[in-house]
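Section 5.1 Outputs to date
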Amino acid sequence: MQVLETIAAFILAIGILVLVHESGHFWVAKFMGVKVLKFSIGFGPALISRRWGRDRTEYVIAALPLGGYVKMLGEQAGEDIPPEDSSRTFDVLAPGKRFLIALAGPVANLIFAVIAYAGVAWIGILGLAPIIGLVNAHSLAAQAQLQPGQRITALNGQKVYTWEDMRTGLLSAAIARVPAQLQTDNQGQVATHTLALQSLKADSVGPDFLGKVVGMEPYLPATVGAVEPKSPAAAAGLVAGDQIIRINHHPVPSWESLARQIESHPDKVLELTYRTAAGISKTVQIKPQMFLDKTGKAIGRIGIVMAPLPRDLIVMRQRGPGEGLLYGLHSTWQMSWMTLEMIVRMIQGFVSPDNISGPIAIAEYAGQSAQAGVAPFLSFLALVSISLGILNLLPIPILDGGHLVFYALEMLRGKPLSPAVVQKAQQIGIVLLLMLMSFAFYNDITRLMTP
C-alpha cells in the first residue's frame, strides 16, 4: 500500500509540474497567435484524448508521465500547412516572440513555486525546534564552540524558526563558500558563533552535510517510546517514558547521542542510568545485541524506539496574506539562486555530484511529503518546480535554454542558424541529457543500496 501511495504521489507531482510548465508555453503561444495542435501531459500512447476550442486542439494524458509537450503548427520543418493557417505558424514568428514562448515554461515553474511557498506560509508547516542535541568532537560546530542545548535564533542576520531554516541557510552559505554567523540562546545566555564554511574542502557539500561536515544534530529527547519484548532493554526493566541520562557515566544529551553510543558497543556491557516517569533515577547493566548493517559492520541494539516529540519541540508558524506572499517570493529567489550556485560549484568540484537525484529519489520524497500533509507536499512541489525551471534554462540543446540560445543568436545574426547546425547541436544535447539521467539513476540506486 505504501509503494502504491508513493507511486500515486509521484505521478500527481510530476503531472502538476508538467502541466504548469507546458501551460506556460501553451498560453504564450496562444497569445502570440500561434495555432496549437496538441497539449500532452506525458509521452507515448494516449490514455485520454479530447479536442476542444476553435482550433480543435488535442489535449492528451499519455501513458509515460515523465514529461510533456506542446505541439505548435509550423514548429517542425516539412509540415503541411493549410493556406488559411499560414500566418499562424510558429516558424513565421519573429525570433523575439519565439524566445518568449520558450522562456514561458521555466517562468511558469518559478511563478508556481512562489504560489506554492506562499501556500505553505499561509497553511503553516510543522518543524523541529532549532535546538542542538549533539556536537561531534573536532567538527566545525565544535570549533565554533557550539554546545548541546543551545537554541539557534539567527543565521547571518536572518531569524531562524526551525531546524530546517537553519539547515537550508547553512547549505546556502556552504555552497557560496562564505562563513556562517550563528546566534544562539541558552537559557538567556546569548552568544555568536562563526562556522568557517569558506574553508571547507572541495566536494564537502553532499548528503548528510549537517551531520558529517558541520558536525551537529538536532535535539531529540532520549526518552523511551516503546520497548521490544525479550530485548536487552526489556530484560533490564526499561519501560515507555523512561529517559536515558547517562551511559558509562557520560551524559546523554539527545537520542542521537544515545543511538551512537549503543551502536558503537555491540555485545559489550554498558552501565545505563535513566530517570523513570515518576522522577526516580536508576542504573542498570545492559549488553546491546550485535547486528550487522547493510555494509556488514557490527552494530549494537537494545530494542527501544524513541518517544513522540513533546509539543515544546514542535514549531508551527503561519503567516498572513501579505507576509506569506513575501515568503513565497523570498523562498523562490533563495532556492533558485542556491540551485544555480550549486550547479556552478558542482562543475568547479566544490559540491558533490551525489546531490543529483533521479526519478526514484523524487518519488520517495513525493510519497513522504504527501503522507506528511498538504503543506509539506506543497513545499516539495515548489522545490522540484524550481529545479525543473532552472534545469530547463540551462543552455543545453533540446532543453528550453538551448532554444533560447538559438533564438538569441538569430536575433544577433539577423538570420537563423542552419538546420544542419541545429540538428547537430540537438544530437549533442540528447547525449548530454541521457548522460545526466543515467548518472541520476546511478545515484538513486546507490542510495537504495547504502544503509
